[in-house]
Amino acid sequence: MQIKLLELSLSNFKGLKDFRLKCNGNDIEVHGDNATGKTTIYDGFLWLMFDKDSEGKKDFEIKTLDINNNPIHKLEHTVETKLEIDGTVTSFKKVYKENWVKKRGSLEPELTGHTTDYWIDDVPTKKKDYDAYINNTIDETTFKLLTDVRYFTEKINWKDRRTILTSIASDYMVPVEVPPTLLQLIGNKSLEDFKKIIAEKKKKLNKEKEAIPIRIDELNKNLPDIQGIDFEGLKKYIKTAENALENLNNEGRQIIEHNNKLFDFKSQLRQKESFKRELEEQLSEDANKEYEQALKDKTDTTNDLDRQKNLLAIHKTSLVEDKKSYESLHKRVLALREEWNSVNVKQFEVNVDGNCPTCNQKLPGEEIEKLVEDAKNKFDDSKKSELEAISSTGKSFANMLEKTKLSINTTEKDIENVERNIQEYESKLKDLEDILSQDQQTVNFADSKAWTTLESEINDLNIQITDFKELDNSSLDSKKNSLKLEIQSHNETLSKRTQFDIAMDRQKELLKEEKTLANSLNELENQEFKIQEFTTNKINALESTVNGMFNNVKFKMFKDQMNEGVKEDCIILINGVPYPSANYAGRINAGLDIINTLSKEYDIMAPVFVDNSESVTNLMDLEQQMIKLIVDKNYKKLTIMEEI
């Protein structure tokens, strides 16, 4: 694809009020002093195509500012271009303007926002169609790579640069085959994953290997001091001491057996004496059985007598209360009977004057008779009700009187029964007192065969206990404890040998383990060497292919790291000097060299903008169109010059 810039016009764009660049697809120079708008030309071109300036910003200031750096309102900011694309001329136009609206009730219009209008070949176009047309022609990244000498070298990160270079070199690079031995090691894993596995294994093995000297040193620090110790002599001494201790234990067991016999004799004695006391109690109880029973019966009878006396007092109190109640109820019944008789003898008396209570005139005879009859009926009803009420109350009191009488009769019978019981208990107590007044019988225990047998056994046991002396084993215990302490002390000393032998065996195991770990590490390092060898061949092939595609600039695609091996990188070199350290001319020519190669690889020739090209006396020649932006203090306004 061949893209040529024919014309570029800017109106009220970032301070350029009216500028027209007409180059007809030829190389051209734009001269101007500082701050005259040279960079603005490329900013306008990129904004027209992609809504961004040369630094990739979308929110940069488009409007023309006044002397106070405030936007000048109601201007249209326009960029327009004509491009020849593979022989076909296409025009693009974009206008950015303010939107002023006069609201109801307001005298002046207000700024409510901004609009952007688009044209392709003078045909109004929507933004999405405008952007789609440009992107179908050439995407933003590719356009910048091929038109901006600093885009590849300064405005994208090293990873993106490396991706671009690897991509264009892939068609030319001779594949580096993985050696069979390495392929067998890797299996179905990627090379990077296998390197991570080796690194993790090495880290683990190194950690284990580094810990071994520390562990051996710790063992040596804790080794018991066995110098000058006669372990065989200690064993013999311990054996002798253990035999002596066993003899003392045997002697102790004999003393314990002896003392246990004495304990058995004393236990038998206590048991026999207990049997003897129980037998004496039983013999005494049998001899005085009648006396003991009389004593018990006296206590029971006395308690029964007291209970009857208390019950008698309760009945007498109840009888007195019932009699008082009976007398009161009897008086009430007599009074009600007199009241009933008094009401019953009452007769109806006529008391009607025969006059109307309203007009006081004499009433007719039949009405007077009616009044008399009504009065009599009323009297009879009242009298009947009153008699019935007195009769009802009288019946209630009569019932209560009858119940009280029955209670009195019952209580009097209870008193008679209780008084009879008291007489019987008092008579029984007198008989018991007669029995208890007699003396208790004295028992002769020797008459009992069982008692005499127990007495004889007790005497025999007392003799045996007196003759059987208890043995003291306190001194024996002291000797045994002393021997135990000596044996324990010598065993502790003897254990030092065991501890020493265990520690030395452990040291041998650790040294053997250290050797095994070292062998494993060597094996892993051999595998790493194979990977490194393959990687180096691959690096050399890639760098050789990439660098063979450029004339002046070179690339270092990898970097060596002390402990991490080879890492991907993308360092631009100009005559062996890293890009950031090279002079300006070297950097610009490096950018042109890269654009030249990328243009060929992408098969796209686009106009190249070179800002500050006055600093480069010998620019690299390109096949495509070049627009040089030159700082020249002799030109206070932008001036266009065609190259000769």
TrEMBL record:
Coiled-coil spans in chain: 191-308, 401-442, 504-537
Gene Ontology MF terms in the entry: ATP hydrolysis activity
Signal sequence interval, chain numbering: none
Domain of life: Bacteria
Keywords: Coiled coil
Entries under InterPro entries matching the protein: P-loop_NTPase
Family indicated by similarity: Belongs to the SMC family. SbcC subfamily.
Protein name, as recorded: Nuclease SbcCD subunit C
Organism: Alkalibaculum sporogenes
